[in-house]
Amino acid sequence: MNAVTPAWVRVRLRTSPGAAAALALLVALTACLAAAFPRALDRYENAGLAQAVDRATPPRTSFTMYAPLPDAEASDRQREQALLPPALGRQQAKVLDTVPRPLVADPGQSSYGVTNVTALAVHDPWIPQPSGLPAKVRLVAPGGLAEHSSVREGRLPRATGRVTASTLDVEAAVSAATARSLHIKVGSVIHVPAMSGPPLVVRVTGILTPREPDGAYWSTMPLLRTPALMEVLSDSPEPPKYWLGALLLPSEAAPALTGTAGNPLRYWQVAPDPRSLHAHDLEGLKSAVASLKSGPGLVRMRAATDPAAQVDTGLDDVLLSYSRLSSGITPLVAVAAFGSATVAAVVLLMAGGLAAARRRLELTLLRARGASLPGLAGRLLAETAVVAVPAGALGLGAALLAVPGGRPGYAVLAAAVVTVVACAALPVRAVIAHRAVRVHGPREDTVSVRPSQRRTVAELTLLVIAAAAVEALRRYGVAGSAEDAGASDGSGGQLVSLAPVLVGVIAALVLVRLYPWPLRWLMRPAGRLRGVVGHLSLARAGRTSVPSVLPLLALLTALTTAAFGGSVLAGVAGARDQAALLAVGADARVEGTEPLPDGLSDRIRRTPGVRTLTEVSMDYQAKTGTNARTSVAGVDPAAYASLAERTGLGAFPEEQLRRPADSGAPLPALSSPSVAEKYGTQPLSLQLGDGTEVSIRIAVVRDRTPAVIGTDFLVVDRAGLSREKARTSALLLTGDHLEAGALRRAAGTEASVTTRAGERGEYVDSPLQSGAERIYTVAVAAGAGYAVLALLLALLRAAPERAALLARLRTMGLTRAQGRRLLVLESLPQALLAAAGGALTGWATVLLLSPGIDLTAVALPSSALSAGGNELRTDPLSLALPAVAVLLLTVGIAVGQAWWTGRRGSVRELRAGDAR
User: Fold this and answer.
1) Measured between alpha carbons, how far apart are the two ends of the chain, in Å?
2) Average pLDDT, whole number, for the chain?
């Protein structure tokens, strides 16, 4: 049979070009989506890691290795030589070679040199002294200064002759920012205190501009390019300040630092190459950083530099923070991926099943004429592979072009799996259906076939697996299941991510078992009705073969995934809305550092979109009896109680906050739990920012309140405050479609404006979050599309039989309207079962899994305020919309099929023995 296989394939492709094109389109689309998923995930994860490292800035992400000066037992010449560029450069090269993979150093931004640890005060009178304190400087002799800077004025510093600890005069350069802040010019002389004897004279010969000011060379020690205005610790509201800057000596003048009291150290800086940081290497990166900080890497670095060297870096904290974010997001994306992949696999299997059903008579005839099962499977595999393999390669190529970046290996593997499933679906289905040679197969009516023992065992096994996955997710959470459950290979996390799919599959199997019962119950009353449409439609629905129940699995899995995904997306939106509300206190907030001018409230009130305006008197300098600062808000009880109820932030009865009639009685106050726990309900003396005191008594305790952002606050009736402190300093606005621009124009320069919508827009903090949201949306949409395709395939499989039935019934007097009703009523039982079962299963899935899922990681940045765990909650629209869409689509297809059958006529369908 192998000799005739090519001819067989050519004949089959010529006779069924439409089916081959449809299969090629399905495989190409599925392979493209499957290959694009891992690349998109890699792309977003890498972008998120790159952003995390970039935001951390070089002072945290670079490795800085410090070593003291050589031992005192060494000669002065040896100590000097150890500080010069040849020795430090050789050590730097060895340090760069010891960086373990996958961490890669960036030699162009890495540096070395000698620096003073202790800043030294300089008393030159021309240097600015903001609070009368002398400026301080650090002497730094970096290597590679000429390669990383441009001379703006003057020239680069040089070292003439041999420089030692006793050298009294050296040259230096400063950055343009340092020169501007410290009033340094070319030719300026700065006297730096020496350890003993006269001060070291530092003559400025050049003002430099960094070529890459944000690069690690200049940013690991920001003082090299930017001076700092330092504050002295003090209880004064305005603590004393002094300038701190850096003087850049030539690397050959490094020995001069040993003559100062600045405690000089040698340093080597290793800047990681940002192009080498990939999210899939995260565990390797963490291991490499740990090795350099306190492991074998540190030992090798000490061998290359100095036995007493120490490494300092904050890259491990950056990687740990990103790892926590990723561990909270990636499992949620896996849930959507598993759901969509399951539905896509079912559709591919259904496509093979449809082809096998359409060619049943042909394959039966081949078996009757002596075709072996291997030969038959080989023929079917060949004709399918000729179409599926090029289509899979085309889909893979489209995915590689559409989604740049990411690892190609996983994309190729995903496309290959899709191609293999598409190639194997038809041969496997045909082999199972034609194991025995027979002309007529047994009837497999849904209402008559009893489940086999093998099927029962398989369903019970799936039930146990699903129950274990759900319990693991509820107990350990979606992010920590694999680690807490002890799954070292990640299989535990994958099982948890499969939990929604497994719940949907179990529900589908249960509904398949329950499906015959309502049909049997309805058959008898339907038989007593007038007309044949009702009884005949139920009889037709009951005669649906058991293998065609596969679409129910696809629909239920897709509906469950859609409901779960819609609830996730709605929960993310809700968490961001709530966090924005906590950060603003209302739909918009207008606040000034001083009391707002008269008339501003009226201007704001007249702004389009403003519904209500609540005036608040804020005091952030108030102190309690223990001299602890507490934010105090003075409000009008009626308006503020209405605002609190409308926003849902600590609603309370206005009577509990109203000022008592007795002027000597303490003011009732609303407080946070922390303040209430500290002071109780006894009268308390409160000193306001203007020096006045008021007696208060905590009467209401609430976790949140609109006026104050934070967890330590007091809210009182401002009628009991002094006239100065009762003046309005903040406005809380509610309304629809508030425009920040209009509010800012109305507020002018007297106040700042913050809107809830604007705050919410800032909560997509990482590309990993936005990417996960997009991937989740695409995955849910793809699952829904495949579910629709599964429904179409199921109806196409039964289309010839339905067309023949309508043709025969029309010869018996059935009208076209009755034919439409017949097809609609015949398809409704499974559609109703899928819609109702999908909605119910989606609701149950969200209810079962919500305790183990926290949406905070995907919804909010780490700096955002949150009311606590943002658990998954059911979204009614995500439950109802897909279910209604299934019903409408089913009815539409049935009506369309009846209309098309009526237009074509009945001659072809009435031919006896015509193969359809």
Assistant:
1) 26
2) 80
Between CA 193 and CA 196 the distance in angstroms is 8
Handedness of CA 70, 73, 74, 76 (dihedral sign): positive
Indicate the SS3 state at residue 198.
Answer: coil
Is the model more confident about 488 or about 268? 268
Contact 697, 681 (CB under 8 A): yes
Three-class DSSP category at 184? coil
Alpha helix positions (H), 689-815: 740-747, 756-761, 767-811
Q: Which helix (H) or strand (E) holds 23?
A: helix 17-56
Beta-carbon contacts of residue 600 (< 8 Å; ≥ 6 apart): 590, 731, 746, 747, 748, 750, 751
Q: What is the DSSP letter of 255?
A: G
The secondary structure of 593-648 as a DSSP string is SSPPPTTHHHHHHTSTTEEEEEEEEEESS-B-TTS-B-EEEEE-HHHHHHHHHHHT
Q: What is the per-residue pLDDT for 347? A: 85
In terms of Cα–Cα distance, which of 639, 614, 629, 650 is closest to 730?
A: 614
Render pLDDT for 269-327 as a digit per residue (tens, 0 to 9): 999 988 888 888 888 999 999 998 888 988 998 999 888 889 989 898 888 888 887 87
CA-to-CA distance for 890 and 831, rounded, in angstroms?
A: 7
pTM for the structure as a whole: 0.76
Q: What is d(CA 393, CA 380) in angstroms, rounded to the nearest whole number?
A: 20
Contacts of 251 (CB under 8 A, 6+ apart): 84, 85, 88, 113, 114, 141, 142, 143, 144, 145
> At 56, is the secondary structure helix, strand, or coil?
helix
State pLDDT tens for residues 231-247: 887 766 678 899 999 99
Closest CA to 837 of 591, 426, 584, 515: 515
Q: Give Cβ neighbours of residue 850 (< 8 Å, ≥ 6 apart).
A: 871, 872, 873
Helices assigned H by DSSP within 256-314:
282-294, 296-304
In sequence order, the 6+-apart residues with CB closer than 8 A to the CB of 473 are 481, 496, 499, 849, 852, 853
pLDDT 10s digits, 83-133: 899 999 999 999 999 999 898 999 989 999 999 988 999 998 899 988 888
Can you tell me whether residue 385 is helix, strand or coil? helix
Q: Smallest Cα–Cα separation from 184: which of 158, 152, 216? A: 152
Q: Give the C-alpha separation, 707 to 439, whole Å.
A: 81
Question: How many residues comprise the chain?
Answer: 916
Prior bond to 102 cis, omega within 30? yes
Q: What was the pLDDT predicted at 485?
A: 38
Q: Tell me, what DSSP letter sits at residue 253?
A: G
